[in-house]
Every structure is written in structure tokens, then in C-alpha cells.
Amino acid sequence: MSDNPVLVWFRRDLRLSDNPSLHSAIKRSIETGTEVIPVFIYSPEEEGAWTPGEASNWWLHHSLLSLATRIEEKGSKLIIRRGGAKQILFDLVKETGATSIFWNRLYESEIISRDTGIKDALTKAGIEAKSFNGALLKEPWTFKNQSGKPFQVFTPFWRALQKVLEIPETLPEPLDILHYNRTCSSLKVEELSLLPKIKWDRKFYETWKPGEVNAQIELDKFLSSFVDDYGSARDIPSVRGTSRMSPSLHFGEISPGQIFSSVNRLKINASSGVEHYLREIGWREFAHHLLVHFPHTPLEPLRPNFKNFPWANDPKSLLAWQQGKTGYPIIDAGMRELWATGWMHNRVRMIVSSFLVKDLLISWVDGAKWFWDTLVDASLASNTLGWQWSGGCGADAAPFFRIFNPITQGEKFDSNGEYVRKWIPELSNLPNKFIHKPWEAPDNILKSAGVTLGESYPLPIVDHSLARTRALRAFDKVKAAN
DNA sequence: TGAAATGTTGGGGCG
DNA sequence: ACGCCCCAACATTTC
User: Fold this and answer.
1) Does residue A387 carry a catalytic annotation?
2) Of A132, A141, A240, A359, which is the most exposed, with the fewest CB atoms less than 10 Å away?
């Protein structure tokens, strides 16, 4: 009476609740008594040029452990394998007699073509292959602007999305998962070697709690206490003012639909804080919209005239930026937070990226690659959008001449220097007046704060005022080519 | 989801 | 009292 098993192929949807592919499989299981086999395949080489970095892999490791445990609590077992996805899926079909494979869609071009190929091959082989939307409020091809083209400006995109969006009914997590009883070999999570060989990840453990259950707890905490002040607190990096949900969203420990419905469930009055926050979820949607419609943008500027931009080849400055040794405290604090925790506050991301692109004239692509390697929330869609925004070469981007002043940004958003002191302890005894510009401090103040510029903390690697003028001159070449 | 340069206004010191 | 200048404060423009 029972049908052949159905495989649920987990990818970046590492949750049991509101998971459409899992939910469909469970539904079938309840109706026909068929077994459900949850599978995770580790195949980083199939992600094209954008192989996940070590910080991202750290998160994946712990998220997989959490998912595996949750699946065991439901009476089943997560099968983990490593290698080419297509081959492994066909192997599993052969081993288990499965006749259906369900998964949730991803949006990177290499992965889209891989998955399309897999779907075709499975269908040709008589296997039912079904994919679902498990990561977005509205998928990029389901709506367009009035002239029938993809959106390139956020505000009309967001308006249109909200218009077509019905607040999603989230799907419940399964009560149990009917276990596949015969043996089916699986790697242990540890055997994927996702954790760093050198133990630089100590701070990650104090900072993050990966996994679906923790994601829900963190979201509830944010929505019930922090979100009211989100509008202003989100700009202060020393304050816990943002949701910090980006890694959980990236790995699908939580869905954007769950965030929307949590807002409803907690009956949060439509304060400006909530509006601002949901708008950020909108930016995540916008990023996916752009990535799907303009798949070349991870490496190429959306605005073609920026191909002529005279970027500097300056490995020394790039290294100083990466290591947080530029001599500008707000920049260095951000870069050190990134290195230590795999994350950087969004306001500071904007400041450091403006500095790389405009003060150092280093290509936004180099910045994107560094963030890709070091962020736990590295997402091709969001990373690309953010860097093209900063580079002035993307959709709805900051105009190139909008050049952040690292001193005034620091004084504005870290006025008491708390963020800088946390990440640059060697400056912690400087008075507020000089915390964002130590080179202006008189010798006696530097001395009593124990700071020796050029030794204990670097002198600025560029003069911002000169760098600003230089950037505007460089931009002239793009304008001329326009 | 900037910053700097330039322009305008108005109060107050001063001859 | 008046015009003149200075300059802070704010507004607008430009990059």
C-alpha cells in the first residue's frame, strides 16, 4: 500500500518549520504511508566561482548538527553525503527505490543551471522532481514593473511586492517523519571538515547560536524588545539594535514569511521600527530579484560605463583594510569585528566599503570577495547588491560622489567611541574628542593614553580629504565614457 | 542609507 | 539712528 520513498533534498533551507518541500513530502507520507528520506549533499564546487568561505562553513557545520538533531527527534535520520549532487541523487534513487525528490529553490545562476539539469535528468528517468519556493516572499520572475521589465529601483519594487504579497500562512513543522528503515550510508557532519583547521573561530562561539530553534528565539527576542527602536538604534554599532538574523536567513533556518507572520502573531503595532525592519527584508528580496535578472553582476557592474573605472592595483592598501590597519578607527574597528565574529554591523559595512572603493580606489569586487570569505552571512545576492551600491555602479546605488567621511561617520554613529574601544583596545584610553582621529591628538594626550602612532596604532594610510578629491577625479573618467 | 562648497539671512558690534 | 561688516546658522547646490 505504501508508495516508494520520497527524498527531501535540503540545501539552504535548514529548518523543519515552514519548509514547503518537506511539508509536501510529509503530506504525501501521511496520505500514502510512504517514507521520507531527508538528505543533505555537500558539493561546494558546484557553486561556481563563489565557493563558500570558512566563516560560512562554520555556520553550516553547526546548522547541520542542529538540523540532524531535530530530524532525529522526529524519529528519522538526516543522510549526509559529499560530491556531485546529480550523481548522489541518482545513487540514492538506486539505493532506496525513491521515486520522488523534492527541494526548495536557490537563485545563484550556477546553481539554477545545475538544478535545472538535475530536474531534467530525473524527469527523463521517470523520477518525480519538484521544487518549491522556500526562501523568498515572491520569486523574482513572478512580478515585473509596469513596462514589463525587472525592477532596478528599490522603492517601486517594494511597493509592488507589498501589493502582490498576501501575508503567507506559514507551514507547521512535522509532528514526526516516517523513517526509512533500511540502511543508507551517511557521513557524519564532522566528516565534511567544515570547521577551520586553525582555531581562529573562538569568538564565533560567544557570538552566535546557529540552528532553527535558536533563530526563532532570537527573532522573538528582537521583535518583542528591540524592534521598536529599530529606526534609530540600527545605526549605532555599539548597540544591539539590529536583528542579526542575516546568517539564519541565508541558511534558511528561518524564512522571510515566518518573520512577517511573527510580526502579526506578536501583534506588534505598526510602529516605524517594524516598518523599517520589514523594509530590510524587502532589500533582501530586491537583492535576489536583481541576482536572478542580472546574473552577471557578482563580478560585473550593472552600469556598463563603470567597466572603464580606473581602479587601483594596490595590494598593500587592500591588506591594510582587510587587517583593520588603515589608521581610521571606525574602519579598523569594523574590519576587526568582521574578522573576529564573521559579521559586521550594517552601518559600518557602508563606511568600510565606501572607504575601500572611494578612499583607496580599490574595486568593489575585491571588497565583495573579502566579505564573501569572512562573513557568516555571506549571500551572493545581498553581498553583490551591497557592494554595487557602495561602488555606485549598481541598481539604485549611492551616487559615486556620495563619499563617506570616516571621521564624521564615526563621530555621528559612535559618538562615545564605545564601538571603537571595543574592537581597538589599544585606543581605549583616548578621550572621546580624539577617538575617531587620533592623529590630531596632542602628544601629551597620546602619551598618557599609551598610544604611539605608527607603532601601537597606524597613522592613516591615506588623507581622506585628498582621497576624496582623487576619487572625484577618477569618477570623471566614468562620466566621460557615459 | 553624505559631505563639502557656496549662498542666504539676520543679529550684533562698531564707527 | 544708520550702514557696514563679521560671522554663525541655516539652506541650497554641487560633487
Assistant:
1) yes
2) A141
